[in-house]
Design brief:
The protein has helices spanning 15-18, 42-52, 63-74, 92-100, 119-130, 135-144, 167-177, 220-223, 258-261, 289-299, 315-322, 334-349, 375-378; strands at 3-8, 22-24, 27-30, 33-36, 57-59, 79-84, 107-111, 150-155, 157-160, 163-166, 181-189, 204-211, 267-269, 305-308, 326-329. It is of the alpha/beta class and 384 residues long. Strands 2-1-6-7 form a four-stranded parallel sheet, with helices on both faces. α3 packs across α4 (92-100), α10 crosses α11 (315-322) and α11 runs parallel beside α12 (334-349).
Length: 384
């Protein structure tokens, strides 16, 4: 994934970073002349101001200035992250937003909510992000993928200072450019997480399901769900009066609600791994085995190979072995690999704690104290 960084000339960057970014210059007005920031030296500007007893004025770049810079950046990059000082300090970011509208889903505007002193920090973070999941890894995954195989890429949202960056938008373009086809965009919904105060609390992540060819494994019968109206019949045409459904159940469509309604739609309502989850280990971002099982059952056959290049504590590996598949897991953290090996041993010995697939999510009884409206709140005088 090639990410270009665009800044404006108010951003005070170190010399080593200036060579790695695209800079949109502000306009400077001095003694009746207008020129771009950087076309004259600071010494020359200060001398003119001293001799004439005047001050220089600056104005923000126009949307057209940003458009030209974005065009140049996108000639050699997949996406642009445009980093600017606080909107409260400058209107420059407004011009950037207007220009970005022309480049759908390829320009991401980032407000630092601060002055230029932090510019270096943000630019370096983006440069690190560019190399965190290199496109070369995805190319290798595609190289070893069977012509009938699938790639399921699970990501969440990146949130910085309240602004949400949907990562699946970044990755979709990479896979698409490499020739893969998106078959479904699956939403994994969970009921618990951090509570936000200035936006709606995030309760989902995304799975992008790609295939290499049009001839891919898809075991529909293994994931069918009970029909809501199994006795429904055709009401007209040559099949009038005949049963219209499938005795094995219906296609779960593209919205799945797995736990409560058994794959009813493409929103997968599976609890995330928190402290009281039976599968919890020391991994900070562990996902449940149940989540992977649905992909494995539908998109692989018995004895197929499953590869997880970021396997963590082995949830995908366990899901594969549990369902009669072969598996390979890769992770750079030795400690997580040790935990994964121990969990695999426990699985084979029948001692691994696993949340059963399709187990209903716990709903507290009205008699449970935590489910009752607190008396303290009843005494409050709510308005509106």
């Amino acid at each position: 994934m090639r990410i270009a960084i665009v800044v404006d000339s108010t951003m005070d960057l170190s010399d080593d970073l200036k060579e790695k970014v695209f800079i949109v210059p502000l306009k400077v007005e001095l003694a009746g002349e207008v020129f771009k920031d950087g076309e004259r030296s600071i010494e020359e500007i200060l001398l003119t101001m001293k001799e004439k007893g005047i001050f220089a004025k600056t104005s923000q770049p126009s949307p057209a200035d940003f458009e030209r810079t974005y065009e140049r950046a996108l000639e050699s990059h997949d996406f642009v992250i445009s980093i600017h000082i606080s909107e409260k300090l400058s209107g420059t970011i407004g011009s950037a937003r207007i220009a970005a509208q022309r480049f759908k889903n390829r320009i991401f505007i980032f407000d630092t909510h601060a002055a230029t002193i932090v510019a270096d920090e943000y630019v370096r973070k983006v440069l690190q992000m560019e190399g965190s999941i290199p496109e070369e890894i995805i190319k290798e995954l595609i190289r070893v993928l069977s012509d009938k195989g699938s790639i399921c890429w699970q990501v969440g949202n990146y949130v910085n200072k309240g602004e949400v960056f949907p990562l699946d938008i970044y990755y979709y373009q990479i896979f698409k450019n490499l020739g893969l086809k998106l078959r479904n965009r699956i939403i994994w919904r969970f009921g618990h997480g951090l509570h936000a105060s200035k936006r709606f609390s995030g309760r989902y992540e995304t799975i992008l399901w790609f295939t290499k060819t049009d001839d891919y494994i898809f075991n529909l019968d293994d994931v069918r769900i009970p029909s809501k109206y199994p006795g429904k019949r055709h009401f007209k045409g040559p099949k009038k009066g005949q049963l219209s459904g499938n005795p094995n159940g219906k296609n779960p469509s593209d919205i799945w609600e797995i736990v409560v309604k058994d794959w009813e739609n493409e929103i997968w309502n599976i609890p995330n791994v928190k402290s009281n989850h039976p599968e919890k280990t020391g991994h900070p971002c562990q996902y449940p085995i149940e989540l992977v099982e649905r992909c494995i059952l539908a998109l692989t056959n018995k004895s197929s190979w499953v590869l997880d290049p970021f396997s963590g504590v082995g949830s995908a590996i366990i899901a594969a072995i549990k369902n009669g598949r072969n598996a390979i897991g890769i992770d750079k953290e030795k400690e997580y690999c040790k935990i994964a090996e121990k969990r695999i041993e426990d699985l084979k010995e029948g001692t691994l704690k696993i949340r059963p697939i399709n187990k209903p999510i716990h709903k507290p009884s009205k008699r449970d104290k935590v489910a009752q409206f607190p008396k303290e709140w009843s005494e409050l005088n709510f308005k509106g």
